[in-house]
Structures are given as structure tokens and as C-alpha cells.
Prior knowledge:
4 copies of one chain form a homotetramer.
Chain A: E1 7-16, E2 20-26, H1 27-34, H2 36-39, H3 61-79, H4 90-99, H5 108-115, H6 119-128, H7 132-140, H8 144-153, H9 159-165, H10 171-184, H11 193-199, E3 200-202, E4 207-210, H12 214-232, H13 235-256, H14 269-273, H15 278-283, H16 286-296, H17 302-313, E5 318-321, H18 328-340, H19 345-348, E6 350-356, E7 374-376, E8 382-384, H20 385-388, H21 390-396, E9 400-407, H22 409-414, H23 420-430
Parallel strand pairs in A: 4-7
Antiparallel strand pairs in A: 1-2, 3-4, 5-9, 6-9, 7-8
Amino acid sequence: MAYRDEKLEEEKVFKDPVHRYVHVRDRVIWDLIGSREFQRLRRVKQLGTTYLTFHGAEHSRFNHSLGVYEIVRRILENFRDREHWNEEERLLCLCAALLHDLGHGPFSHSFEKVFKLDHEDFTQEILLGDTEVNRILTHVEEGFPKKVADVINKTYSDKLVVSLISSQIDADRMDYLQRDAYFTGVSYGHFDMERILRVMRPMEDQVVIKESGMHAVEDYIMSRYQMYWQVYFHPVTRSAEVILSKILHRAKELYQNHYEFKLKPVHFLSFFEGSPTLKEYLALDENVVMYYFQTWMDEDDPILSDLCERFVNRRLFKYIEFNPNLQMNEWRELYELFREADLNPRYYLEVDSSSDLPYDFYRPGEEGERLPIHLLQPNKELKELSRLSDIVESISGKKRTDHKLYFPADELRRMPEDSEVKQRILGILYGKEEQ
Amino acid sequence: MAYRDEKLEEEKVFKDPVHRYVHVRDRVIWDLIGSREFQRLRRVKQLGTTYLTFHGAEHSRFNHSLGVYEIVRRILENFRDREHWNEEERLLCLCAALLHDLGHGPFSHSFEKVFKLDHEDFTQEILLGDTEVNRILTHVEEGFPKKVADVINKTYSDKLVVSLISSQIDADRMDYLQRDAYFTGVSYGHFDMERILRVMRPMEDQVVIKESGMHAVEDYIMSRYQMYWQVYFHPVTRSAEVILSKILHRAKELYQNHYEFKLKPVHFLSFFEGSPTLKEYLALDENVVMYYFQTWMDEDDPILSDLCERFVNRRLFKYIEFNPNLQMNEWRELYELFREADLNPRYYLEVDSSSDLPYDFYRPGEEGERLPIHLLQPNKELKELSRLSDIVESISGKKRTDHKLYFPADELRRMPEDSEVKQRILGILYGKEEQ
Amino acid sequence: MAYRDEKLEEEKVFKDPVHRYVHVRDRVIWDLIGSREFQRLRRVKQLGTTYLTFHGAEHSRFNHSLGVYEIVRRILENFRDREHWNEEERLLCLCAALLHDLGHGPFSHSFEKVFKLDHEDFTQEILLGDTEVNRILTHVEEGFPKKVADVINKTYSDKLVVSLISSQIDADRMDYLQRDAYFTGVSYGHFDMERILRVMRPMEDQVVIKESGMHAVEDYIMSRYQMYWQVYFHPVTRSAEVILSKILHRAKELYQNHYEFKLKPVHFLSFFEGSPTLKEYLALDENVVMYYFQTWMDEDDPILSDLCERFVNRRLFKYIEFNPNLQMNEWRELYELFREADLNPRYYLEVDSSSDLPYDFYRPGEEGERLPIHLLQPNKELKELSRLSDIVESISGKKRTDHKLYFPADELRRMPEDSEVKQRILGILYGKEEQ
Amino acid sequence: MAYRDEKLEEEKVFKDPVHRYVHVRDRVIWDLIGSREFQRLRRVKQLGTTYLTFHGAEHSRFNHSLGVYEIVRRILENFRDREHWNEEERLLCLCAALLHDLGHGPFSHSFEKVFKLDHEDFTQEILLGDTEVNRILTHVEEGFPKKVADVINKTYSDKLVVSLISSQIDADRMDYLQRDAYFTGVSYGHFDMERILRVMRPMEDQVVIKESGMHAVEDYIMSRYQMYWQVYFHPVTRSAEVILSKILHRAKELYQNHYEFKLKPVHFLSFFEGSPTLKEYLALDENVVMYYFQTWMDEDDPILSDLCERFVNRRLFKYIEFNPNLQMNEWRELYELFREADLNPRYYLEVDSSSDLPYDFYRPGEEGERLPIHLLQPNKELKELSRLSDIVESISGKKRTDHKLYFPADELRRMPEDSEVKQRILGILYGKEEQ
């Protein structure tokens, strides 16, 4: 039997707290899960620093990837005998679902910003480069790795296949909303996925939703909205992200200034220099990063060592509402005052802004690649969701941004009570009446 | 206000997926949670290698410790106005609950066996030594750290206090059964804790359960039974433990034989030598261990590098049922054959036996320190649980042991088909009819 | 000890699927639950005809009333030591919570419309009249029944007390959303009540919500929105309500026309005549109504017997979208055609319109009695919810109405295919392209 | 297309709180659900008087019947391509699952005992008699009603089919344990049905369970054990059953003694006379019974009126432990004393004994019709469950009986304090030290 059609003698299952069971029958899927590149995802947390806010959020991208695979598997089971669906694409969809996050590195968000990397590039490299995953996919068919890469890259010709993995209501989002809600323990994030799966219909170039399922979709979109503001953009999590970025910046700067590290940061060198190879990239998982942070707590550079101590022992920065667009002067003044107070403002003062994309996604047209959700009406016509749903309409236009200013409140507290600089800083931060 | 009575201005809560919220009002508790020794528990998994079997089980001991604290907090709220309960002991109980697992190191089970350590000793050292935790507790009262240590050590004079933290139905067990069930996703581990908390009653020297709550307790004990066999003793998890132990053994042996490590295992040296200081012990969390394992994959020693590769990439040993007491001859023969096949049997052949304690606990008398569960009857008499419950009675006598033989099936598969050694090994392992 | 302060020797609990346990310590509450007027609520379904759409929705108002009591009990536990809260009002609140729905009759909605009754009047009568409930309340204190009645009637002087029972986010709504979601099995209706209870704060004349709980309140309002459209206004449920109303109308009409019922409708006579006494009102529960409907299936009047058969055996009317404001001509035409077809349009053709109140409630000012939800900001100022929440703002202005036209599709189907009347009716109902 | 193969154009679903959705594709199933005999099940509670103990247990047999159907549907989906399974039997299984409880009358347990009826006979009559259900089944195939009846009657030739509906681990039990747990809200009743369904395997003459699913089956059996003792045999529920039986006995006795009822009990006459026709049987649902009970509260016979008042207003009998086998003398004495006290002991004194069948079922051989659960071992051999499971073994031998004596404690309380009879009665009931 061809490898692509090979079935396991007995179906294997993974016990999954979100979907109850993840079912695997295909030998290819089984082999991919066993590959070292896929196993590496166990060493990258799904939600980065969120576990410092929600202690349950310690789950890995391995978890999530299995979940996305399982959702696509269930969707395709429903599609089996439907018009527009080409059963030939089944294995391709499953592989793309399973592997779509393969290139994620440690604390992706901060790493990518500081080192100017893109995990999507690495996903492509892993699929197409000299890896176990590539060998397994090539064994299916010459050119199969490229197909998988194209689906994940949204450049595959069959747009229906692409939309299963990346669209406004794809398996990726449906898994992470539920999974992140489960592990954090928040009460948001619930929606009736079973119903959504039942009302999904394949069309020529996209998956659409039967109109009768509109309310379940509304619920899903409200879940996203709540999860973004309650979990993903939580200001405490962002405080940890700020510190994390500062550590990476500082280490890089020290390296560039020929600082002598007590422990040579072997794993980081190529990152500092700007062009890690695939092998170097894969070697740097979150355990390794944490190992360095713990080690750097003993470095002589006071900034690096302090920031690492903060991250490891969770001594985070505090925050206040602060709109940099409106408060330019305060910002400049604070910057100066921090310098006077011997707190390097490049590392100890930061504005972080989070913008709410979730309900802006749903405007067709504007963002080239993002397709709207279409509802299939009883008369077989398609209608864009926000034209039928008041709630979605109401939130789909409004971009919302949250600005926070982060700083080490503990350092300020430690300054002598009669310090004028301290008083002026506190005056700006908290106003007169407080503190 | 005395530090011990200080309350936070506003109650703080942690969102907890198992107990919904963990509530903190006491400044002391808040400070302890923020201490570096307590934060370290985020870097030690609650279930060691179980995440390699149940992918959801990535939660840390930090999680669990907060949960135990919360359960004790709820119990004490019910006890407030009850006879036998001394409200003076409240803070002591809360601290002991929060800190009872403080000394756990990485993958405790294997580490303790290989390096002959005991996490309970380290818990005592952290409480009594030069640590942030000690400073916070001492701030409560001179001698308070010792009290907390005594409660955890079960030597505290007030046995009622001890029994809240360590008994057959203590807060520790109630938390971990539910938490581990939640994160693994298994359907066992559920019992009606709310009801058990409601029927707990303080007595002079122990917590007892009102007889009307007997069925909830039965359910709890059945949960334990199922969790032990379905989760804690899962043979795949034990396969990972076997490999982990072998890695530690091998590294230690190499060190003792003056092997030159490419990367000097600084963090391990004092462990190899047998007497890590508290500081060294605390520095070795699971991130650091994993960092070494990943690095050792590049070591020249083929055994160390192979074992590490197995652990990191989850290439586990396979297993068969094997009773070493009854199958001495097979064991000896296999040992010889492995040697002939150039598979060092000291590292590639292992019997692991797990013994089922859960329902043997409940026999009063035998195990000095373990108290039976007592039911409080309407006539105010106490009766040992198994005398009233058929189900508990039925399982409380029977010790059950499970033996498995672990070996690298992949290595055997790779040997030439016509190898006689291979055939003889397979013959012993699988019998004639299979493979 | 005064009756009002009497506690049960041992707390009693009711196992409740929604709140897990309902706790009773007060003798007064225990006695009220045991009264015959409160037990009667077991014989009135919480959701009327909804069980014909969602088969799980067979729960009674007894269920719900206990739930509202329990929520208020939990709120007051949090209020105990708070400013603005007068512990003297505790028992009053609990009684009002428990008894707020006492006057509900069978299938209240239809009954009240047809017989021009108001269940709120009967609640007042039960509290103040010659009943077991009145005797228990009077035993607490002369004038106590009147106080309870005033709280339920929203005329009590302490507006804070009133707002616990009747406001935009009161215990009543919080219970029924969760309870109705639980029994129907829909995935809407979930919100984080535990958090809402924690952020409720008593003020002089209302309960307010700390701003930090805003997202939980948003979630609650979205739940209401979804429950209204998905469950409460479900068109199939409304079909059953239409038939129910028609039965009552027909029976009353027959009675007024001196029709000779085979079984004299003793229980209904005073309803037909317009002024049931309290005793007569209480005697007519849903079992009795159903008994009559089943009996009336054998009446000679073909309309009464057909409608009863439809209700009892769930042969409901079908429906189409139909806006009576825009489709006056179609309506008139259909009305004529039904008459021609010998289907009495007064009983077999009906437009039902449901208006969505949930998110219109939240506009302060317009509806005198309805207070907006206020958020308590860190600076101690109050702000109306929709001014801080985009989502609530977005739905709070828009009234939405759903119109459906109901008719017996089975009768139409049974008419001869070549009937011109039939063809014309179908033409209007379904247009040309369908059927 | 033949009626038996007809599919609905679009799959219909019922929202079910236990199984989330019940799916219907077959026209035959859809028609059966719509039949009046099946709709009647909405008017018969699943758990009789249990709602007087657990207020959530107001769900009907309609609910449960849909659930059993859904479970069988899922099992058969798994069986589709398996050896031993004959897809021809699919519709038969679904019909038998749906209709297996069709003959249940109001409060079956008491009714059957008092009137010497058997609901299983009526199930057969409904299937084979002049009913809508029979017409639908006959439309499938001449003789099909008989086949369905045989499956339900366990006399059908294909024992595999029978075992799906009636065996130790059949769809019936799996549904009611979960459903009754859900509606009562107890925490027992949970087991991993999804896993059990996955490990079920069809064999020649029975369904067996793969050995790897043994622990899920253990959990299921423990659920049964707990549900029996915590819910089904709850002493308060049995108190209501005792009163119910007494009412029926009294009414029958009065009728036989030519008592003149104010309202002629038309619906009961044939029951009193011992041979209701099918039509009469079907007319007497729980609404009708409750209507009579409420009406009889006004009867002149003091016993009938008192008992009805008790049932309707939940003034139940109290109970004590009482073993009639050991306490013959007390029984005789009480009987005499009640007579002296003018409390007719035939109606006001009753011993109710409940015997625990659940874990006695599992002994093969003894009860002819009950087959043991067989586990399918990896070597393809079958082994009876209790031989592999310690827990099941431990409970499978022990029959447990619970005896309670019921009596109207309120009447005793109302007797003058100095009454000697009262003192003697209380002495026997409560001993000297209490009351």
C-alpha cells in the first residue's frame, strides 16, 4: 500500500482535555507527530509569558497543534460526501493543520521583534529543509512538502483548502480560543463548536456557514473579543513581555559592545548576529532561553542581571494608562527624570500598545488576504456575516487600542522619600492625590 | 498592625481552572507567593514525565501549591466557629499548605532515587535556611518557620493541624486528584469536594467526616484508585522515567570515570559528588536539566548521547509484562543476550515495578504514620471508613503490583533479520507466535 | 429565640444542578419552602411551552425560585461587613427572592393575555391573603408580609433591597439565564457569576458593579441577548403558545355561547367569567390544564378538539416570516382564503411578534422603573455601563422585532392538489418557486 | 425509495443537554418521534417521585428515550464496517432503542405493584396494536413491528442486536445514569462513555468490550452503584412512593366498597377493575393522575384526602431504619399502637425494602436472562469482567438491602404530650434517649 494511504492497524488516540480525544488513523500523521521537529513544540509555550498572569496557562504549542489537526479531521469527516469537496486533499489538509505552527520559537512575539525574525519563514524552512518532517512528507509524494508549505503560506491554488487552515473562522482559531480558555480557566472562550462544524459547508473557494448557525458564529466572535482583552492583552502579561524584550535587547547590545559574558551565550550568537541557521533556530527552545536567563542573573552587567532576575522571579514592572500620542510631554519629562534617577529609561521605561484586531478582521476588502465570513442563506446566496448580525456589525468597525506605560515601581519605592526626582516622577505617574 | 494580621487592602484572586478562584487576603500569604523559592515551583512540573503520555499534563507544582492552599482556606472558613478548632492556628495551616511541596526538585522521583536525596529534607532547609521564605515567616514570629516545618514534617504537636495537610483525605490529595484529572483530561478524578468540605469536622487530634458524607468519600477513594492506575503508573510515563534515571546514572558514572564533558556540567557537579548545597539544589530546575539533556545529545559518549536524544525527542523504550520474581531465568538470559548484541543491559534493560498504595493506605495500625479516615456517626461515635463502606473495604486489603520490562525495541528492529541473537531476544520478549 | 432569628439545628441543603447546593439555615426559609403555595410552583413549568422545542426544558418555577434565593444568599454573605448594607434587611431579601414568582400560573404568558390577568397581582394576594405563606411571614413580624410584597412590587423604601431582586442584573435574571441554559442544553447562558458576585457593591440606593468586573457583565448581557433569540423567542415555542391561546379563546367563546361541554370545565368557569378568586387561581396548575386539554380532545366542537389534539400531541402550526405592517394586503387576502377553505382564520391564522427587550433595557431614562447598570470606577465615581462598554453600547439602542405568521400546514397539504384556493394560499405563503 | 431507506432532506437535530445533540436522518425515526404514543412519554417523568427529593429531576421519559436512541446510533456508526455486524439490522436497532420504554405509565413502579400491571406488556401492545407507532413500523415492512417487539422483549434471534438494548452495559443504562445525574445535579453518574463506545466490539451473539477499556467500564459500574444508593433508593423518594401506593390502594378499596366519589374517577375505573384496555392505559398519564390527586384532596374520606394532600403538598412520611426480619415484635406492637391511636396502620405504617441489584447483576449464570460483561483480550479470548477487575469482583457478590419504616411523624407530634400511646410509639421508634 502506498505510504500516503497507509492506516495504523489500530486507531491511536491522544487524551485531550479540550476535544476529549484526538484520533489518528493515518501512518503519515503518526510519523509526523513522532518527528523531532514536532516534538520540539512541547518546549515552546502556547501563550508565552501568559502563565505569569494565569498560572494554568503552561500548555505548549504541541497541545494546540494536535487540537487544530483534530478539528480539521472532524470537519473533513463532515465534508466527505459533499459537493465541492475533493477527498484527494484530505491528507494535505491534515498535515497542514498539524504543522502550521511548526516554526514557532521561544516567546515568539518578543523574539521576532527584537531579532527581526518571522516564525512563518521558519515553518517554510522546516517543511522544505533537511528535517525529519521533510523526509516524511517527501515519502508521501515528491513535492508534497511544498504543497503543505503552500497551504500554510496561503498560496495554494485550492482556496477551499487554504480557508480551512487560515480564515476568520478556521480550525486554528477555534482550537486556541477553547484551549486557552480551558488552561487559563477563564469563563470566556466557550462557543458551540460542534454546531459550527455541523453547519460548515465547502464551496468552490472557501468554507461557508449555513445561516442557521449564525448565532453560534456570533458567540465565537464574542469569545474572541473577550479572550483578546481578558487574556491575550492582559497588562501583566505584557509587563513580562516588556522585560523579556529588554533582556534580549540588552544582551545583544552587550554582545555588540564586546562585553565579556561569564558564560559565553553560544546558542544566542547567531541571533545577535542576525542570521541563525535552521539548526541554530531549532536548538533555541524555551528551556534553553530560561537556562540563559537564570545564568545571566549572575552576570556583572547590572541591567542584564536585574532584568533577568525580574523575569525569572516574576518581579514585574507596574503600569499605568498612558497614551503616548496625547502625553508626549509627560513622556519626555519622565525619560529625563529616569535618567537623572539613574534608571536607564531605554530599559526601565516603556510604552506598550495593544491593538484590538479581532473585530476589525471582519471588514471585507480592506485587508487583502483576510476573507470575510460568509453565511449561506436558504436561497443558496452568500451574505457577509456582519450584514446579517447586529452584534458583529457593531464591533466590526471599531479598532481599539490600549496603551500602558511600564516602569519598575519597586525601584521608585526604594528611593529616599525626600528625593525630589522621586516626587516629580510619582507626580507624573500617579498625579497629586495618590501615593 | 502586626504583620501576621495584616490584610491586603483589596482581596487578590488568582484565576484557577480547578477551583475557579484562589483567594488571598493575608499579606503573609501574598508575600510568600512572591518569594523566589515559591516562584521556582513554576519551573518544576507537577507530574514529571507524564506530559509525554498525556500531553495536557504540563502544569507545574506552583499550580498545585496554590490549590492546596485554597482548599485549606475553604476548610478553615467552615471551621471558624466550631468546637475543637483554634483560630490561632489559621495562618500556620495556610502557610504549611502553601509551602508543603517547596523542596521538590526537577523530576523528583528519578532524581531522588539516583542521587539519594529527599525533597522533604530540602523543604525543611528552605523553611529554616537563608531564604526569602524564611525571612517572611520569621517576620511573622520568631520560631514560626519551625512551626511551619513541623506541620509539614508531621511532628507538630497539634495533630488536627497536621491532619489537614497530611492524612488520607487531606487538601494535598484532594487538589492533585482533581488538578491532574483536569490537565490530563481523563474522566476520573472527579468527586464532590464541596460536599466533603461541608462534612469535615475538627476533632481533638484529627479531621473526621460526618457519616452522611460517606458516599462522597467513597467516590474520592475510587478516584484515587483510578488515577493511580490510569495516570500515575501509566507504563509510557514510566518508560520516560526509566530513560531519565539512566541518563543521570550514566552522567554520574562518566563523571566518576573522569570523562571529559564537552560542556562542563557545572550545575550537576555537587549532585554527582553527593551533597548539593541548598543554593545548588535550588539552581537545578527542570529548564536547566533539559538544557543539559539537549546539550548532551552532542556528547561523544554514545550511551549518554543516545539516552538524551531519546528523552528529548520522545523515542521511548517499549515494554512487556514481566515479573522479575517469576522470570529470573529469562531475565538472566536477556541480560546476557543484550550484552552479546552490544546493547549495554545496565542502560537498555530495566524492570520497573509500581505498587499500588492507594487502597492499602486505609488499613489502620500497619503504617505507623498513616491515620485511617474516621466517620463521625449520628451518635457521635467514630468509625473507621472501611468498616462502614463495602467498596472501600473491598479494595483496602489488596496490594497490587505491576511489573514491566523496558527495552529499546527500535534498536532490536534495526538488527539484521538473520541475527541469531535478535531472534532469541525476540523469542523471549514476545514468544514465538508474535513478531 | 424570636422566630425571625431561629436557625435550623443543622444546615439543610438542596442539591441543585446549577448552583451545586442551595443552603438553608433560617427556619423561616425552611418553612416557606414547605408551604403549599410554594410547593405549587413544582406544577408550573419555568419555560411554559419551551419543552416542546427543547426537550430538556421541563424544569419548574420551584427550581428557579430556590436558585434566586441562593444567589441572593451568596450576595448577602459578601455584603455582610460592607458599608451601606443593613444586615437587618437580610431575611426580608431572602424571603422576597424566594417568593418573587409565587403568583405565576400555568403557561402564564398565554393565560394572562387571554384572561387579562397579571401574575404579579396574584403574588401580592398570596403574600397578603389567607395562605400558609402569609401565616409564616406574619409569624416573623406583624407587617412583614407587606414588606416582602413591597420589595417584590418595587415600592419598598430601601431601593438597595429592591435592586437585588429587580434590576438589570438581579438575582432573578442571573438564575434563569443559567438555569434555562442548563436544562435546554444550549451553550449560551454561561457567564462568570462568581466574579459578578465578587464585584457587586452595595450603595445607598442600588447595587453597583466594580469597573474591573465589566467584562463579566458584558458576558452576562451577551448571554441574555443570545438566550432571548435562541431560546425564549424560538418560533416553534411560539407556535405552541399560539395554539394554547387559541384553545383558551375557543373554550371561553364556547362557554359564552352556552356550548354544552361533555365535561363541565369547573376549574375554568371563574376564568371565563373574568374574576377567579385566589383559591380558584391556585387550583389551576399545569396538570389541571393539561387534564382539560386531553379531555377536550373528545369534545364535539371540531375547533376545540382539533386545537387540543394539536397541543397534546405536538402537531404544531408551521410559520413563515411575515411582517403585518408591510404585508397588510397579503394578510387580508389570506384571511379571506382561509375562510373560503373552511379554516376559521380566527383560530388558524395568526401573526406573532416578539420584540427584543434585552438590550433596550439598558437605556437610562426612558423606562421609568428600569435602572441602568452602574459601574463603580476606581475614583469612586459611577458610570453607566454602556458608556464604558462598546459592546453593550452597540446593542443597547436597537430594538429588534421578529414577526411570524402561523398556520396549519398539514391542513393545507391535505386539501386536493387541484384546489384553486389551496394554490392561491400556497402562492402567498411560499411564493411561486417553492413547494 | 422504500420508506425504510428514506432519509430526511436535511438532518434534524434535537438539542440534548446530555449528549449535546441527537441526530436524526431516517424518515422512520422522525415519524416515530412525532407519533402520539411517543409524545405521550413527555407526560411521564423518568424518575417518578424523585423530583420531590432532587428538585432538578423533573425530566420525562421522552428525554431518556431520545438519549438511548442517540447512543445506539453512535454505536452503530462505529460498527458499520466491522465483522459480525449486519448493517441490515440498523433500523431495527434504532427503532427498538427509541421505543423500548413506550409502555411506561405514570409513576410506573407504584402503579404496577398496586394494579398488577407490567409496562413491558403495554410496550408490546403499543407496538403490535392499533396505534400510530404500529402503522409507521408496518409501513417499513410487514412484520417489522413484531421484530421491534421481539428485540425489546429479548426474544429476537440475533442476540447481538438484543444485547445493544438490554445487557449489563447497554444504551439504556448508559443513558439513564448520565441523564439522571445531570438533572439531579449529583456528581456521580459520570463515566467516559465516549471511550466505552470506542472499545465496544460486535461479536456473534453479544457486544463485548476491548480489555483496554476495562477501567472505563469499572467507572461505569461504580457510577451505577453510587446512583442506586444516592439517587434511586433515596429514602425520601421512597416515602413519596409509599404515599402514592397508599393513595391508589385506598381509592381502589373505596371503589370496591361502593364509596361515592364526588368526582367519578372515570380514568381509573378500568384500573380498579383490573383490566384497562390499551386506550384506557394510554389516557392515564401523570397529568391526569395529578389532577385526580388534587381533586381527591376534597373527598370526604379522610384517609384518601389526607394522603392526597400529603402527596400534592409534599408532607411526606418520616422514616427510621427498621429490619422487619429482625424486628417482628416491634412491628406487631407498633401496628397495634397505631390502631389504638386511630391511625390506620394499613395506610400509615409501612416498611419499604430496597435491594441493591447493580453489583449482583454481574454474576454469570444465576439470573438466566442477564449476561455478564465480557472483555475481549488482545489474544482474542473473552473473559468475564469480574475476573479481571478487582473492584467489580469485590462488589459483584454482595447483595445489600435497605429497610426503612415509614410513618406520619407530624400526626404523632400532634397527639397530646401525655398520651401514653404516643409515648409508647415514640419509645419504639426512637428509643428512650431521643424525642
